[in-house]
Amino acid sequence: MVTENVTKTGPKTPGPAGRVVELDGGRGYRLLIDGAVPLSGLTASLNGLCDAAEDRPDPTIVVLALGTTLPEHRSWPTGVAIQDVNRWERAVRRLELLNCVSIALVPETCGGPALDLLLACDYRIGTAHTRLLLPVNDGQFWPGMGLYRLAHHIGLGRARRLVLWGHEVDVSQALELGLVDEAAASAQGAAAAAAVLFGRIAGADLAVRRRLLLEAPQAAFDDALGVHLAACDRELRRLRADG
């Protein structure tokens, strides 16, 4: 894994695909994802980003610049074994559970592995040109964990309609569904602002709250009560210590 320092708030371009770039001021890291790269290369790059974030003792952020998905790369994945898919899914889950805020930039069309990462990030920034291309092979929706996250984010009914009937989501629909949080004139500028804002809340406490949110739809009330009370007790202790 290679890191590269930058001297401005953020580079005009994210850097070469697969290279983990350190943000200005040591606030975090940026990674450009190119959907044309083989799945094994994407997995290695994503694990490199997670390694860099986990090695930092202080809260940080990670920014994923999701490269444009070309129409010929919409059918995804191709030419892989189930072991490759398993390693990819585990790397995406690792990103999802980091003790830092993850920000996704979606400048134009987003599909395949980039869509998996979009759904796993905390904050998603698109533009007026953003389109989400759902992964389809021979007319069939790819049954990976992106399908799981889609149902988790927007609910079973709306996810069913997208999976069965809709293979493309424009930016207005993505905003309405909550798949994109912001449509900005400049995704890079919005990411820089978001990095400053969300960088202050990164850390173990963020990871706890995210985990509670992720587990809530599947957890029975009595099972959830204990972990929520434990989180509340931790927060009360923190507030007393700060006071």
In short:
47% of the residues lie in helices and 18% in strands. It has 243 residues and is an alpha/beta fold.
Mean pLDDT comes to: 82
**Beta-strand content bin:** 15-25%
- Strand-and-helix sequence, N→C? EEEHEHEEHEEEEHHEHEHHH
The counted number of beta strands is 12
Largest sheet: 7 strands, mixed
Question: For the terminal residues, how far apart are their CA atoms?
Answer: 42 Å
Spatial extent as radius of gyration = 18 Å
Structural category: alpha/beta
Overall body shape: globular
Percentage of residues assigned to helices: 40-55%
SSE layout and pairing:
Layout: E1 3-5, E2 20-22, E3 28-33, H1 39-55, E4 61-66, H2 82-96, E5 101-106, E6 109-111, H3 112-120, E7 123-126, E8 131-133, E9 136-137, E10 140-141, H4 145-154, H5 156-164, E11 168-170, H6 171-177, E12 182-183, H7 187-198, H8 204-215, H9 221-242
Parallel strand pairs: 1-2, 3-4, 4-5, 5-7, 6-8, 7-12
Antiparallel strand pairs: 2-3, 8-11, 9-10
Helix pairs in contact: 1-2, 3-4, 4-5, 8-9
